[in-house]
Design goal:
Strand content: 25-35%
Largest sheet: 6 strands, antiparallel
Helix content: 25-40%
Number of domains: 1
Mean pLDDT: 80
Order of helices and strands: HHEEEEHEEH
Shape: globular
Number of helices: 4
Distance between the termini: 42 Å
Length: 138
Amino acid sequence: MKKPLIMAAAIILLCSCINTRQFAYTLKSPRIHFGKRGGFANIPLEYVLTEKGQLFKLENDSLLKIRKINSGQLDNINSLIGNTSFRDLSIKEPGNITYFIRVVRNDYENEVLWFDSSEMQGLAMIYSALMETTAKEE
């Protein structure tokens, strides 16, 4: 009787020690990571949007569920990503405040980094649409 209880407790303890940032990056399902890094305080802001519309925030190595976005917003974001040929973009221009979007799909993975939105209008539109999903944190 005690042996199964000890094994269950050990498994729960082991699972609680997993680094959630690493867990978020190793998810198998298609997803979009987005946010910004740098600035005076250098506090990163990162969100993860799954293919099913679940929105999470990475905060202090914790993956916090914010909400589920509606299918219209998700379709709009996927359309913007498709229309900009995100798969083929090769932009790595970090700055004092670096914005990023990382798209992970079954057939490809790509990340872009930029610092000046005025030169990256297509990316700014995608980033804006993604940030709109975070406006109503629950």
